[in-house]
Amino acid sequence: MKNLFYILAAVRAILVFGGMVIFMLFYGISCIFKKHTSNRAFKLRKVYLKYWCIPILNIKVEKHGKPSEIPSLYVSNHRSFADPIVLCRYIDAFVIAKAEVMNYPIINKGAELTGVIWVNRLDQHSRNHTRSKMVETIQGGFNVLVYPEGTVGKLAHTLPFRKGTFIEAGENNTPVVPVAIEFKSEKDLWVLEKFLPQYFYQFSKWKTEVKLSFGEPLNKSDGLQLHHISHDWINLEVKKMQKDWSEVF
Q1: CATH architecture assigned to 2-242
Q2: Chain segment 158-179, per-residue pLDDT in tens
Q3: How far apart are CA 29 and CA 54, in angstroms?
């Protein structure tokens, strides 16, 4: 039986990544006739996630609240590599992603095509550049998604949030939208070090259940206030999600 579930995960991987290549190929051909824009790329990503990737992986999402109608900085807790798959189904955003993802074949090209801001977390210059790019992107009329924990969390509560993006948001009058995400199964948390073993561990089961909640936009000039309010709101939401539902906490 266990082998059958691993076969299921392998088939899903072929379909998900094969589909990604086909979507990008057709989009590339379409750009011969119609100019590439961020909005067109976002639409491609949403169609791919909604009608291909999420159904194949059998991800079931219970969503509360709604995204902001104005360009904002979305800040979310980080549980799994599947977090952006779930979130980008509902928001058009440039995702701030760690530079290591640049080494993931296919995924890196899909991210670059549909909106990503790379950051080397160990390089101060890279972090400063990323924050400047974040502000420039939002002021240009687009959303940005960041995971302020800086890595995936496996505890019942979030890890401490890094303050840099919140301070930058406060100084530039950028709306901040807190987002809470929680998975039902322990297998959905990123507990294995490498991407492929974690993928097979997570998607060898039949269904992935997720809760997702959008908070109200926060408009504060004090970055530390943005940091504290977002951190506390997300932790409160995650605790509510876990009650009588989570198989982990």
Answers
A1: 3-Layer(aba) Sandwich (3.40)
A2: 999 999 999 999 999 999 999 9
A3: 24
Neighbour count for residue 168 (Cβ, 10 Å): 20
What beta strand segments (E) does 31-86 contain?
Answer: 59-64, 73-76
Residues 19-39, mean pLDDT to the nearest whole number: 96
Q: What does the alpha-carbon distance between residue 208 and residue 231 come to, in Å, rounded to a whole number? A: 25
From the list 73, 125, 208, the residue with the least C-alpha distance to 199 is: 208
- Taking the model in full, what pTM does it have? 0.95
| Strand arrangement, sheet containing 176-183 | 59-64, 208-214, 176-183, 73-76, 143-146, 93-98, 116-119
Q: Which two tokens stand for residue 247?
A: 């198989």
Strand, coil or helix: what is 245?
Answer: coil
Closest CA to 184 of 150, 211, 155: 211
C-alpha to C-alpha distance for 94 and 177, rounded to whole angstroms: 14
Helical pair 164-171 and 223-242, crossing angle rounded to 10 deg: 130
Q: Please report, as a single letter, which amino acid is at residue 57.
A: L
Residues near 29 by beta carbon (within 8 Å), at least 6 away in sequence: none
The mean predicted confidence, pLDDT, of the chain is 95
The two three-digit tokens of residue 223, written as one number = 């970055």
Domain ranges of the chain: 2-242
User: Token pair for residue 34?
Assistant: 């119609």
Using only the alpha carbons of the chain, give its radius of gyration. 18
The token pair at 214 is: 């959008």
